[in-house]
Amino acid sequence: MTFKCAIIGVSGGRANGHADAYTHIPRGQLACIATRNRANLDAFGERWNVDARYTDYREMFEREKPDLVHVNTPPDVRLEVMHAAEAAGVGALIIEKPLAIQAEDYLAIRKFAGSATVKVAINHQLHFHPRRSQLQSLVHEGAIGTVRLIDASARMNMAYQGTHVLQSVAAFHPHGEPASIFAQISGGNGLQEGRKQHFAPDATLATIRYGDGASTLLRCGLNGPYVLAGDERVNVHKQVTVYGTDGYVHWSMWGWETSTRGKRESGSHNYPDEDILGQAAMTEAAFDWLEDDGQRHPLNLDAALLDFHILLKAYMSGLNRREETLTSDLQPGLIEALRLTLNS
Q1: Each residue of 285-314: b (16+ CB within 10 Å) or e?
Q2: What is the pLDDT of residues 175-188, one digit of tens each?
Q3: What whole-number distance in Å separates Cα of residue 29 and Cα of residue 340?
Q4: What CA–CA distance (Å, rounded) separates 91 from 73?
Q5: Concatenated DSSP letters of 158-177
Q6: pTM over 0.85
Q7: Contact, 3 vs 29, CB < 8 A?
Q8: Does residue 344 surpass a pLDDT of 80?
Q9: Domains of the chain (ranges plus CATH)?
Q10: Packing angle between helix 103-113 and helix 301-320, nearest 10 degrees?
């Protein structure tokens, strides 16, 4: 079966990554696209040879009946697209991160998830990068023993890459149940109004404790370490290191390292090459889910909601200067509270 696929939002660079990945996706065809800017729509359609072009994604849903849609909209219209897809009978959505921005939209999406039939995954393609997948399998198979500490970071703020980092943590420690979150936050530049509406503190430092005794150290924003010396691009410095009782594994956008039972290995990889394969494998996993409800996508909406809940509790911990748990109520108006506190 060949799945009919679409992209909403083709004015930015991420859409090109989605389209390019279809050279590695045998079961899917990029058949239609939608974006509000006609010039950008036509330029993208010409580049990727897509003739079905719409300035209204709802019209695209009605006429084209896509099986899967990549959603590259700003966060403040994610829920609107989800509702429209549900009403139109779209099979699956792959939504760009972040899923939401603060408690109100998170809670609205969580309510939607409780009754929705459309299958939703979040675009954390790093989970499917070939090298990341290998390292995740090593940890799951017990090669480093029992997980004790995860050090995960990115130099972009929590809205841009924080959920990438949290998803990485969950990928290596999938059965960890967060018991508490304690965080510090600083810097209000990332809370200013902008086109993408990706609001977050400039720096976040958080510790997450789990019921099994493991913990995570999360650094996101200006306090994140550089992983490629001399490269000032803010988006290329994601990394995760997992320490266990018998060794460790380390992944960054550009290299890897393992120490398992006394044997140390390391190497490098080219992020763009890994990324297109990860994007393709993530999309293929959505097709598996469409064909079989039992093959739930690992980047499913429930998993993303948990990651975002942790993010919100990190904000609350930093604001209120106390440890938070997932059982406490979410604080309304978090972004405005962050603005008032960090820009005062």
Answers
A1: bbbebbeeeeeebbbbbebbbbbbbbbbbb
A2: 999 999 999 999 99
A3: 47
A4: 18
A5: IIIIIHHHHHHHHHHSTT--
A6: yes
A7: yes
A8: no
A9: 3-126+276-299 (3.40.50.720), 129-268+307-320 (3.30.360.10)
A10: 160
